Amino acid sequence: MQTLHGTNLYLRALEPEDLAFLYAIENEESIWEVSNTITPYSRFLIRQYLENAHQDIFEAKQLRLAICQKGMEEAIGLIDLFDFDPVNRRAGIGIIIKEEQNRGKGWGREALHLLVDYAFTHLQLHQVYANIGEDNAASIALFTTFGFQKIGVKKDWICRNGHYFDESLYQLIQN
């Protein structure tokens, strides 16, 4: 897969030129919670990751794509399929728009639409899911707009600043 095109943006494979962007995202402590990260990543490790990004989803069990505005090459965010399970035909979805000023503009909605369509149409998945912190109203609104349903709550799942927060599991099943 080279790119997935939408009206205002496109999703593309990661390139070596995305090193600085990935380095900035992976080392942004405020989003470590959503990526289950607790330590910074070096440029060396991210460069190694990019060198192996050519693996297909059946080999890597993950597909990470850059979210780019039409006419622009640099990424504004990332969207992932993770825990890809071709036997049970399911995968998790995660999305991040890096800069606060780019959030709430519909980029995430369009990117999610493209990836969900790709997952169901090209990968023949039966279901996709998202793990969302109970206090992440923007993500809950985004995923539920697409028909994702809350199917469970993981109590005290996230520890932030010594306090525990619930995380919910949202699921979208292809009919």
From TrEMBL:
<dbReference type="GO" id="GO:0016747">
    <property type="term" value="F:acyltransferase activity, transferring groups other than amino-acyl groups"/>
</dbReference>
<dbReference type="Pfam" id="PF13302">
    <property type="entry name" value="Acetyltransf_3"/>
</dbReference>
<dbReference type="InterPro" id="IPR016181">
    <property type="entry name" value="Acyl_CoA_acyltransferase"/>
</dbReference>
<protein>
    <submittedName>
        <fullName>N-acetyltransferase</fullName>
    </submittedName>
</protein>
<keyword id="KW-0808">Transferase</keyword>
<feature type="domain" description="N-acetyltransferase">
    <location>
        <begin position="9"/>
        <end position="171"/>
    </location>
</feature>
<dbReference type="InterPro" id="IPR000182">
    <property type="entry name" value="GNAT_dom"/>
</dbReference>
